[in-house]
Fold this sequence. Notes:
- The structure holds two protein chains of two kinds.
- Chain A is mainly α.
- In chain B, a hairpin with a 2-residue loop joins strand 2 and strand 3.
- The radius of gyration of chain B is 22 Å and the shape is globular.
- Chain B starts with 13 loop residues before the first strand and ends with a helix.
- At the A-B interface, helix 2 of A face strand 3, strand 4, helix 1, helix 2 and helix 3 of B.
Amino acid sequence: xxxxxxxxxxxxxxxxxxxxxxxxxxxxxxxxxxxxxxxxxxxxxxxxxxxxxxxxxxxxxxxxxxxxxxxxxxxxxxxxxxxxxxxxxxxxxxxxxxxxxxxxxxxxxxxxxxxxxxxxxxxxxxxxxxxxxxxxxxxxxxxxxxxxxxxxxxxxxxxxxxxxxxxxxxxxxxxxxxxxxxxxxxxxxxxxxxxxxxxxxxxxxxxxxxxxxxxxxxxxxxxxxxxxxx
Amino acid sequence: xxxxxxxxxxxxxxxxxxxxxxxxxxxxxxxxxxxxxxxxxxxxxxxxxxxxxxxxxxxxxxxxxxxxxxxxxxxxxxxxxxxxxxxxxxxxxxxxxxxxxxxxxxxxxxxxxxxxxxxxxxxxxxxxxxxxxxxxxxxxxxxxxxxxxxxxxxxxxxxxxxxxxxxxxxxxxxxxxxxxxxxxxxxxxxxxxxxxxxxxxxxxxxxxxxxxxxxxxxxxxxxxxxxxxxxxxxxxxxxxxxxxxxxxxxxxxxx
Lengths: 230, 255
């Protein structure tokens, strides 16, 4: 075994050169070069840690920005909702006012129409009364003529007489009423002295229908007026 | 047929005689291989010293070695072990490179033989005594006579103290021996094994017939042995450095 047999001769050399080279490794490499390598590693680790910290800070900042943006967006959304609501209310109010104005106008027109209808009805009523009076006169005369020997002649005379004073005061249409043909036709239809009163209503109904629409109001109101008048 | 001596590979041959006084400090093959180890380490770490923020492969390799030692010392000793990092680093790298150099297949170049400096206990023993001396010096430096409490573990019954102290003392004194011998024996055993099976291959080929079978088997076996030896090179360097840190830990932190 050379390790033992050679030992006395080589030990000094082994020890010396081990000391030299181990010392070189220790002082030159381990104490001279390794610290520089380690400082590089430390610098890198520090840089990485710093970068990570920066990244973390950036993330926090980004989060904050996002939160602020969200808050702004929420505020804007609330604002928008409020403005929309206000606009809706405003427009509703405006519409209401316009509807009200239109309603007022319509009511005014309706009232005017009612006034017109009323005057028409009054005129018509006067006419109908005149017709009824004529009819009554005619009937009386006719009955008298039937009873008198003059017969129909008397009736013809009566017809040729001037109209009664009242009729002369009434509206036009006297000639039509005095017309025996017309009277005859009225009677043929079945109008008697009693039912002739219903003729008062006829113009009312006509006027109501002439407005173009047939609402129940238009039907009932003339009737109610007629009832009220009787 | 020439006789094969598996121990011949451990012979140290003088290269240049050098005498200083009574001492023979001749430059030998062992010296040359120690120098080679130093040179390789120097080149390796010099190339790893580029100090780039983003390391290249070589720099990363050098940094991983220093980081490995740093970690080992930190784990086994703690922050107080920082000042021993250069020593542990020197131990580990020197032993590792010496071990690996001895495995290089340089014998295929005529006249050149690989030589394992760590297969001489004149080297491993000196390193072991160096570690042991540092442990003792640090222990007494830090704790004075209190360092002797190392020999009495906590919780030992009073009756047992003398016996335990003797056992602990022996085990403590055996440390340098086991430290030096372990490395030396591991290296020498592996090399003898490779030498023996290598000679089997050659003898088998010359023998013919059954000999070829023996050669083939030996060849297979030697491949595994070489793989195992490569592993052993790293393990022994690691064990030497690790045990040194553990002993230093004892000296610094006691038990």
